[in-house]
Specification:
Blueprint lengths: L2 H25 L7 H30 L1
Helix pairs in contact: 1-2
């Protein structure tokens, strides 16, 4: 996946995460106890890991040239 594609997806997923955080806080629910927030947080974490791995792979490929 291209960097810009990863960046756009990350932006969208972070916006969802922030929205869920706002909702939970308005309801007085601690974030670590809000299942929807935690699930979205895991999605963002997984996407960040993919982005980092992709960057490392690209860096390694450039060094091999």
């Amino acid at each position: 996946m291209k960097k810009s594609s990863f960046d756009e997806k990350l932006k969208i997923e972070k916006e969802k995460l922030n929205s869920l955080a706002d909702e939970a806080l308005e309801k007085g629910i601690p974030l670590n106890q809000d299942e929807a927030f935690m699930e979205q947080n895991r999605k963002v974490d997984e996407l960040v890991v993919k982005i980092i791995r992709n960057q490392e792979r690209q860096r390694k490929n450039r060094q091999e040239r």
